[in-house]
Amino acid sequence: MKEGPWNLPLLPFAVLLLLVVGATAGVTALLLNISERKAEERNPYVRLVEVDEDTTDPEVWGTNWPRQYDTYKLTALPTRTRFGGHGGSEALPEERIERDPWLKRMYQGYAFSIDFRDRRGHAYMLQDQEDTKRQTVPQTGSCIHCHASVLPLYRDLGDGDVVKGFEKTYAMSYQETNARLHELGHGHPVSCVDCHEPASMRIRVTRPAFVQGIQALAEGEGEVPHLPSVQRWREGPRTRPYEPNRDATRGEMRSFVCGQCHVEYYCSDKFKLTYPWAQGLTVEDAEAFWDATEFDDGERFYDFKHKETGAPILKAQHPEFEMWSQGIHARSGVSCSDCHMPYMRDGATKVSDHWVRSPLLNKERACLTCHHFSEDEMQARVDGIQDRNYELLDNASAALMDLLDAIETAQAAGASEAQLAPALELQRQAQWRLDYVASENSMGFHAPQEAARILGTAADLARQGQVAAMAWQTAATHAAR
Q1: How many contiguous H segments (helices) and E segments (strands) does the chain have?
Q2: Where are the domains of the chain?
Q3: pTM
Q4: Which residues contact 29 (CB under 8 A, 6 or more apart)?
Q5: How does pLDDT run across 134-179, given as a tens digit for each residue?
Q6: What is the CATH number of domain 58-362?
Q7: CA-CA distance, 464 to 470, in Å (whole number)?
């Protein structure tokens, strides 16, 4: 019997049908996946609440981003390393000026001689500023720039213009500025909105003083090999100012968000909050900037006049960003966030750890992702750097104390300010460098060779000043004979 088409074996047709069905299902799944990814791109987060530029309470943001908020809350926990942090349970951290009396003497005439404590986590940045004994002397409203979520306050003071509002605060008292912040309902420490754009969660800088400072740096000639976007801008047409939120790389932004506040600056009532970056980011660049600055009355710039000697002193704040810029990590493209906010896994999700703290408390994720050694080896390397830095700091501080003694002795013997001018100028230079490293929160680790160089120069300048003061005494003694 001859086979007809209806008598052919069914297996090949069944296989073909299965292949067609499978291919159709695969293409359908692919199209659905593409559609879902596009939807995620349009709205990448599950938003249970809406946040905007006025949402300064981090708890509200935590509803949408609970992983990040949970780790941010850990900044309220006490943490301590060998050379910093707050490890106790008391209401306020330990006084550094009681533990290191030379600090108190160095700051005589400045509010830090009243109250200068170990640092605490970001959760306390506003509270500790409000509670410090430094508030017993007049403080400018500029001080709130880095301690609170201030953008709504600036908009309020500037009639919608953030920069105008910011530039008004230096002429206001801290108490007045802080009270207005709370009246507006924004009495929170630096919050999510200060580093993230609400619609996209893109990291950004918001502090007007940083934007003005980084633009001045870009327009200057200071060396910035660690900031390729600034170098590219300099080589371009310069038709518009350098704008970090537009021009910087993501890697640079992961340091810029920290550099908004962890910097050297002027913060008082003579002029607006200023970052001294127009000539570069080294300690000498900042010194040259301040030396070239005058107050409105034509007087040479200073932060305070030393109570014992009368020398016009430059007060270093906390130049972590500047010191990092001189180190090997910056030159290697390692950002602040890579070490202080390293990525972590939460289930299948990769997030940035918002428990901002010393990498020494988190070496596995902060250090060992790049340095393939044991935790003990990494700790030993850090200990070696910090021990040497501390020894140099101790030597430089002893030299400064000897300089102050020599100036006081000469003044008691009748030396005038004009006669001691060389010694007083050397005090300004030596104290600036010593304070620069002492106030920088890494005990030299951010740039070990640079910190050592600065401290060596500080000790040398202090000894030169001591010799200058003693030389006047010797000359005066011979003249009396």
Answers
A1: 21, 6
A2: 58-362, 377-480
A3: 0.89
A4: none
A5: 999 999 999 999 999 999 999 999 999 999 999 999 999 999 999 9
A6: 1.10.1130.10
A7: 10
